[in-house]
Amino acid sequence: MTAATVDRETSGARGDQPPVPDGAITITVKIMRFNPEVDSEPRWESFGVPALPTDRVLNLLHYVKWYLDGTLTFRRSCAHGICGSDAMQINGVNRLACKVLVKDLMSGGGKHTTITVAPIKGLPVHKDLLVDMEPFMEAFRAVKPFLITYGNEPTRERIQSAADRERFDDTTKCILCACCTTSCPVFWNEGSYFGPAAIVNAHRFIFDSRDEGSQERLDILNDAEGVWRCRTTFNCTDACPRGIQVTKAIQEVKRALLFRR
Amino acid sequence: MQFHKYDVVIVGAGGAGMRAALAAATEAGHAPRTAVLTKLYPTRSHTGAAQGGMCAALANVEEDNWEWHTFDTIKGGDYLVDQDAAEVMAKEAIDAVLDLEKMGLPFNRTPEGRIDQRRFGGHTRNHGEAAVRRACYAADRTGHMILQTLYQNCVKHGIEFFNEFYVLDICITETETGPVCTGAVAYELATGEIHVFQAKAIVFATGGFGKVFKTTSNAHTLTGDGMGIIFRKGLPLEDMEFYQFHPTGLAGLGILLTEGARGEGAILRNASGERFMERYAPTIKDLAPRDIVARSMALEVLEGRGAGPNKDYVLLDCTHLGAEVLETKLPDITEFARTYLAVDPVKEPVPVYPTAHYAMGGIPTNIHGEVLRDNDNVIPGLYAAGECACVSVHGANRLGTNSLLDINVFGRRAGLAAAAYAANHDLVDLPENPTTVVENQVSLLLSDHGRERVADIRTELQATMDANASVYRTEETLKQALHDVQALKDRYAHISVQDKGKRFNTDLLEAVELGFLLELAEVLVVGALERKESRGGHAREDYPNRDDTNYMRHSMFYKQGDSLKSEIRLDYKPVTFTRYKPMERKY
């Protein structure tokens, strides 16, 4: 993607800025902008933002939106890494903007630092950092991400040992932020690949002792667009803001396919 | 303008909204055409941030019964709880948890493989004898698991969602028998288009309004939209002065650290290391209800016993729990402390201070989720559930875990009631020009009519609410807050929205949200000024005692006109009692 660069470090301000807190340094936030209503192609734009080392990148984006350019568009909600709204490429790596602190990104000496922010890759960009999540959610829904059981339900809860519960604990943490899927080179090249997040959510049920739908799900994942596309580059595992061992989960699904009855 | 017709329309896709949708789709005995409208994406809602658990007297690990749960809820709510509603909630809690397990929710398990249970604030054995293990949980991400499980089941049952559709108004048609709710009007974020959803029944499940405060556990998107819409329609809001401050927010940030930490044995300490809750609640100590713990923490700081360089917080000590308990039962909060404060709870105590957390008040409903149009009568076709609603099961102070319970019990009830109503009624014609209010609102905000910045007004609103209307309040601080909020409302008339586009105009969205916040902040402050007593989450320094003679009653707020600055009329509604007489509240 080629992108023109505009420097708005000193221009574009909307009136007086709020007071700069003690200890703040100026960070250059370089953002990939694209609004199909006015732009023919994406462009880079830079903003000077006062920031504390403990600020989240999300705070910097809010500063730009609230005080410099109200048209900057991104999703966010909980602001502490639980809702999964604000996945974006920060300095080239998929992260949640609310979970990366400025101090983690400061270059040596911490005098003048540039942080680049771009939309996650492989999904159509609607506007600035906000992408179309539908292809991602479609892949999620396609793997039957829900408990499948047959026969009568028990009157009380189903019994599950603590060890059986632990077996799929890691993949229950997924918040559907798409950091993993949009860091996957296979997904970039072939958007039809289910992608890591869908497989993680299939894993969450395949390895749940209460579930009786594993065979259906494994059939789906055995498809041409399924788990065999994975080339174990581990980008997904590195990108996961929840620390899920994504690649391991995918490998476990592959193994389940190889050794299934 | 686009037009849609449904039997049931649910506004909000958090726990209450999705539970309502599932009840309508799978339990109603017929399948009403149902749509869920959400201003976010499903699974982004703040139900997912709830951590500690969901109480139900399963008695899986020790003796318990739902009557004790009812009593704890009523006492915890400082006797402002409608007791019939609390009984319904505690009784149906058991099936609510079992239903979630059957839907696939991965609860933590006991050694026997049953759903495990932990202690939580204010939940006790035999009417206050000792803390009881009642909270069913999935590590410290119970809300996340509930939200995911409900969405998974919505996928399973093919529930129809309209994502990023921001509902800005409801349609009320005047009929011979009185007003009837006939639809909802939404602004589609992707296109800027306005959609009218005509429906037999509308369920509001739009969440809270924590963003009136600066220090809050709430998401940026929790701006009280649903309550604001209802209030602007001249329908009442109830008990809005009762706002909960969760004791353990990360100091300075407000990010929630679950009460489940104290349920697992963590201890609050002041600067000198003293376990100060022993002085305030000698029996259950750190597991006293949230209002009591939050006030105690604020007092410790006010009286100079706070920790840190500015003595402005206290410490949550988890160090004796050991790394294994923290990593397995409290992994998320352990990570929050590490990420946001660079403090490792395994090795050192965590700085905490109360954070604005939950609205006990909201849209008044009966136990079927039907919305009241005045103190006594419902408006047919309109339902509400979850934090935006006030049943009232939480009274003056909600017990921990009872919100996840509330969304499941009353979300389901509202969904069932809406489906039943839809089955027995025909569509009623919409009022003339149903989109006028929304069209005018949007075009006014986008027009050039001033230079005030949304962020400035919001920042000042949050600052005055934190300073003047939080844990402790006085006549003087509340008058200051009222003055400030009214002045900010004047300035709101001159805000400028910089983004004039149609596509994902989140600049416009924030301006609309700010309007709702200003509306609700004033209601909260007016209610707090008028209630000259201390009860639950409402603590008046100038009136430190509970006054049952004059204030054992629900506040009902009515907006008296169409402008942002219209007068608020305050009325009262009696509390429903069944078997529990008000007593002094000691723990």
From TrEMBL, chain A:
<keyword id="KW-0003">3Fe-4S</keyword>
<dbReference type="GO" id="GO:0051537">
    <property type="term" value="F:2 iron, 2 sulfur cluster binding"/>
</dbReference>
<keyword id="KW-0411">Iron-sulfur</keyword>
<dbReference type="InterPro" id="IPR050573">
    <property type="entry name" value="SDH/FRD_Iron-Sulfur"/>
</dbReference>
<keyword id="KW-0816">Tricarboxylic acid cycle</keyword>
<dbReference type="GO" id="GO:0009055">
    <property type="term" value="F:electron transfer activity"/>
</dbReference>
<feature type="domain" description="4Fe-4S ferredoxin-type">
    <location>
        <begin position="164"/>
        <end position="186"/>
    </location>
</feature>
<dbReference type="GO" id="GO:0051538">
    <property type="term" value="F:3 iron, 4 sulfur cluster binding"/>
</dbReference>
<keyword id="KW-0479">Metal-binding</keyword>
<dbReference type="InterPro" id="IPR017900">
    <property type="entry name" value="4Fe4S_Fe_S_CS"/>
</dbReference>
<dbReference type="InterPro" id="IPR036010">
    <property type="entry name" value="2Fe-2S_ferredoxin-like_sf"/>
</dbReference>
<keyword id="KW-0560">Oxidoreductase</keyword>
<dbReference type="Pfam" id="PF13085">
    <property type="entry name" value="Fer2_3"/>
</dbReference>
<comment type="similarity">
    <text>Belongs to the succinate dehydrogenase/fumarate reductase iron-sulfur protein family.</text>
</comment>
<dbReference type="GO" id="GO:0006099">
    <property type="term" value="P:tricarboxylic acid cycle"/>
</dbReference>
<dbReference type="InterPro" id="IPR009051">
    <property type="entry name" value="Helical_ferredxn"/>
</dbReference>
<keyword id="KW-0004">4Fe-4S</keyword>
<dbReference type="InterPro" id="IPR012675">
    <property type="entry name" value="Beta-grasp_dom_sf"/>
</dbReference>
<protein>
    <recommendedName>
        <fullName>succinate dehydrogenase</fullName>
        <ecNumber>1.3.5.1</ecNumber>
    </recommendedName>
</protein>
<dbReference type="GO" id="GO:0005886">
    <property type="term" value="C:plasma membrane"/>
</dbReference>
<keyword id="KW-0001">2Fe-2S</keyword>
<feature type="compositionally biased region" description="Basic and acidic residues">
    <location>
        <begin position="1"/>
        <end position="11"/>
    </location>
</feature>
From TrEMBL, chain B:
<feature type="binding site">
    <location>
        <position position="387"/>
    </location>
    <ligand>
        <name>FAD</name>
    </ligand>
</feature>
<dbReference type="InterPro" id="IPR015939">
    <property type="entry name" value="Fum_Rdtase/Succ_DH_flav-like_C"/>
</dbReference>
<feature type="binding site">
    <location>
        <position position="398"/>
    </location>
    <ligand>
        <name>substrate</name>
    </ligand>
</feature>
<dbReference type="GO" id="GO:0009055">
    <property type="term" value="F:electron transfer activity"/>
</dbReference>
<feature type="domain" description="Fumarate reductase/succinate dehydrogenase flavoprotein-like C-terminal">
    <location>
        <begin position="458"/>
        <end position="587"/>
    </location>
</feature>
<keyword id="KW-0249">Electron transport</keyword>
<keyword id="KW-0285">Flavoprotein</keyword>
<dbReference type="InterPro" id="IPR027477">
    <property type="entry name" value="Succ_DH/fumarate_Rdtase_cat_sf"/>
</dbReference>
<dbReference type="GO" id="GO:0022900">
    <property type="term" value="P:electron transport chain"/>
</dbReference>
<dbReference type="GO" id="GO:0008177">
    <property type="term" value="F:succinate dehydrogenase (quinone) activity"/>
</dbReference>
<dbReference type="GO" id="GO:0050660">
    <property type="term" value="F:flavin adenine dinucleotide binding"/>
</dbReference>
<comment type="pathway">
    <text>Carbohydrate metabolism; tricarboxylic acid cycle; fumarate from succinate (bacterial route): step 1/1.</text>
</comment>
<feature type="binding site">
    <location>
        <position position="225"/>
    </location>
    <ligand>
        <name>FAD</name>
    </ligand>
</feature>
<feature type="active site" description="Proton acceptor">
    <location>
        <position position="290"/>
    </location>
</feature>
<dbReference type="InterPro" id="IPR037099">
    <property type="entry name" value="Fum_R/Succ_DH_flav-like_C_sf"/>
</dbReference>
<dbReference type="Pfam" id="PF02910">
    <property type="entry name" value="Succ_DH_flav_C"/>
</dbReference>
<protein>
    <recommendedName>
        <fullName>Succinate dehydrogenase flavoprotein subunit</fullName>
        <ecNumber>1.3.5.1</ecNumber>
    </recommendedName>
</protein>
<dbReference type="GO" id="GO:0006099">
    <property type="term" value="P:tricarboxylic acid cycle"/>
</dbReference>
<dbReference type="Pfam" id="PF00890">
    <property type="entry name" value="FAD_binding_2"/>
</dbReference>
<feature type="binding site">
    <location>
        <begin position="38"/>
        <end position="53"/>
    </location>
    <ligand>
        <name>FAD</name>
    </ligand>
</feature>
<keyword id="KW-0816">Tricarboxylic acid cycle</keyword>
<keyword id="KW-0472">Membrane</keyword>
